[in-house]
Amino acid sequence: xxxxxxxxxxxxxxxxxxxxxxxxxxxxxxxxxxxxxxxxxxxxxxxxxxxxxxxxxxxxxxxxxxxxxxxxxxxxxxxxxxxxxxxxxxxxxxxxxxxxxxxxxxxxxxxxxxxxxxxxxxxxxxxxxxxxxxxxxxxxxxxxxxxxxxxxxxxxxxxxxxxxxxxxxxxxxxxxxxxxxxxxxxxxxxxxxxxxxxxxxxx
Length: 203
Fold this sequence. Notes:
Layout: H1 2-13, H2 23-26, H3 29-32, H4 48-52, H5 58-70, H6 74-87, H7 92-107, H8 116-132, H9 136-150, H10 160-167, H11 190-202
């Protein structure tokens, strides 16, 4: 608890532009990446109001995704939110919902079945929210998720590519996906990890 307070204090002490918003960063792949790794092919958008509109807007798709996520329909939520992100890739509100949905998808899987590509992609989504969100509560939420997922939060004044280089794992399967980061001398218990992950989502 004390550690979280210190982290949040540091966050509030830093200017919202601490990392900067250079044009070069806007063009980086991790910012606008809507990789197929996060896509679901098993969901369909069924909101009649959206279908009647003909061409769904990003906001309408966000509402559909949020509603589906609330009802636990991850596949349908992923379809809607993926399309919303493609229409508005720099919108932090939509990206936050997308990250929540991807995280629930990963947490629902057994540890041995977790895809390192999805893990890395998820970290990038929360990093996006932390850097681009306009509201302190969204930044704090992203910071909490990053710390829980990879065991580390961005350091003060640390550039995005430096942070990603520290926390991303190889995508060739040489390292397992471990919630909380890779710690030495740690023996993972699959069921224990899953219980801890699910309890985190309920907080």
